[in-house]
Amino acid sequence: TKAKTNLENCLKGIYTCDLSQFGPSEMAQVAQASRKRNVDKCMVGAGACDPVRLTPSEAASVAAAKVTIR
User: Fold this and answer.
1) Which one of 4, 10, 22, 35 is most buried, by most CB atoms within 10 A?
2) What is the DSSP code (8-state) at residue 12?
3) What is the three-class DSSP state of 39?
4) pLDDT of 19-54, one tens digit each?
């Protein structure tokens, strides 16, 4: 269905995502997926990483990963 496709797009971070279609449960899923994508980007040093969005624990993991990579 269109709603399912939209949710899948949002979970994957695809720009055609329409957040206005979601209730609190779906919004929580999308937010969690977005946070994970950001952490993954930060872990590999991608330019798309937004370090401001990291929790203190995530920031420590990213810092440790950078030390390991060097």
Assistant:
1) 10
2) H
3) helix
4) 999 999 999 999 999 999 999 999 998 989 999 999
